[in-house]
Amino acid sequence: MASSFDLQAHAYQQLLFQHHDQRREHQGILLDALDHLSKDVAYSLIDDKHTYDKAKDLFHRKYNRLQRVFTHSASRHRQNTLQPLKLIYHQRRDLALKISELLQETRSETNSMEVRTHWNGSIAVVYNPTTGRAEWRQSWHGGIHGVFNPVTDIIEWRDELHAGIYGVFNPKLNIVEWKKVCQGGVHGVYNPWIDDIEWQISFHSGIGGVYNPLTKEVEWRSAFKGGVVGYFDYGSQTVKWIEKWHHGLALIIWDETIHTYRTTSSSGWYGK
Fold first, then answer.
1. CB within 8 Å of 132: residues ≥ 6 apart
2. pLDDT tens digits for range 235-249
3. Predicted local confidence at residue 272, as pLDDT
4. By CB neighbour count within 10 A (0-12 exposed, 13-18 middle, 19+ buried), where does 259 fall?
5. How does pLDDT run across 168-219, given as a tens digit for each residue?
């Protein structure tokens, strides 16, 4: 008969597989099961710790310090009684941590918007509409960016040391266009009104751009030695901005008008 730990570990593996297999927009169906498993493991962990602490206290009262070091009976007691309880406690504690991380990640993916940062470097996110999954990457002391190419059905990635890098898919040429700038930031936005990509660079600063469907123009913002990303908020009908000093920024947001995710990042390097 399987132990409670084996059953919980098996449930975690099943939910982990479903998490990786499920599209980002459908992650919400896993929350109840993950929350229930998290609480179940937490209760078991309390019992494990109580049982282990009680057995350890009994062992210390039964054998003094010298006996615990030199006698065979104490060694056998430790091996046969304490070690199994300690092992299951540590295994359950590790499992609880994994479940907590999976629950946190799943909750983040159920939000309409998720932002991640990376200190003194760059971070980027790309949504793959084919798999329904978002891919995150980061780079230390340099820029990194990725773009989904609908022609090849793959994500193209590039990174540059001590430089900003950004790519945008050009629907006219059916290719990803790339630009880079040393010691600064670069950003490109496809403007459907003029059917072209607009580019901006900023030295020693991050830069972000957002197409405003009301004005049919791209709005720009820079942040000195920091990351900046923006998105069009349909509720307020304005462009919203997020800035963070000396951090790379990446954002993924659900767009109700096109029923998919948009992604953007501040993929620059601004110097020390």
1. 22, 23, 24, 25, 26
2. 999 999 999 998 999
3. 58
4. exposed
5. 999 999 999 999 999 889 999 999 999 999 999 999 899 999 999 999 999 9
Tokens 């349909």, residue? 234
| 214 dihedral zone (left: phi>0; alpha: psi -120 to 50; beta) | alpha
Residue with token string 């990174």: 159
The chain-wide mean pLDDT, for the chain, equals 94
Amino acid 174: pLDDT? 96
Q: Give the list of residues 6+ apart from residue 124 with CB closer than 8 angstroms, or none.
A: 136, 137, 138, 144, 145, 146, 248, 250, 263, 265, 267
The distance from CA 243 to its chain's CA centroid, rounded to whole angstroms, is: 18
Q: Is 204 left (phi over 0), alpha (psi -120 to 50) or beta?
A: left
Which stretch of DSSP H or E encloses residue 19? helix 4-21
How many whole angstroms separate alpha carbon 224 and alpha carbon 49?
A: 50
Task: Give the list of residues 6+ apart from residue 169 with CB closer than 8 angstroms, or none.
Answer: 147, 148, 149, 150, 175, 176, 177, 190
Encoded amino acid at 51, one letter: T
Burial of 124 (0-12, 13-18, 19+ CB in 10 A): buried
| Per-residue exposure over 244-257, b if at least 16 CB sit within 10 Å of its own CB, e if not | bebbbbbbbbbeee
The span from the CA of 49 to the CA of 89, in Å, is: 6
Length of the chain (residues): 272
